[in-house]
TrEMBL record:
Protein name: Nitrogen regulatory protein P-II
Organism, scientific name: Segnochrobactrum spirostomi
Pfam name, any one: P-II
BP-aspect Gene Ontology terms: regulation of nitrogen utilization
Binding partners and assembly: Homotrimer.
Gene Ontology molecular function: ATP binding; enzyme regulator activity
Length: 112
């Protein structure tokens, strides 16, 4: 099993969710986060004063999938989240040693 973690632009959430649902991913976790990469933030004007926004709002999506579904999952996220602009985000893949469904006690792939 692997956990696929993606950091994306907030307005792309619904497209990514639909793409994951279409390939059979049954659940996901979404967390509101802030950060920056190559964008380095931007400047905004509020009440006539200019100020720098160094940490931009992003969403972190996490899904756990069987190892054989990782490539398809990553392709779905990248395809749905891509705008072609700087700041589209990144996808990371980690190993998962164990999973347990609390309600039923099912383990590993059965718990997904």
């Amino acid at each position: 099993m692997k956990i696929v973690m993606a950091v994306i632009k907030p307005f792309k959430l619904e497209e990514v969710r639909e793409a994951l649902t279409s390939i059979g991913v049954q659940g996901l976790t979404v967390t509101e986060v802030k950060g920056y990469g190559r964008q380095k933030g931007h400047t905004e004007i509020y009440r006539g004063a200019e100020y720098a926004v160094t940490l931009l709002p992003k969403l972190k999506i996490e899904v756990v999938v069987p190892t054989e579904a990782v490539d398809k999952t990553v392709e779905a996220i990248v395809g749905a989240a891509k705008t072609g602009q700087i700041g589209d985000g990144k996808v990371f893949v980690f190993s998962v040693d164990q999973a347990v469904r609390i309600r039923t006690g099912e383990t590993d792939v059965d718990a997904l």
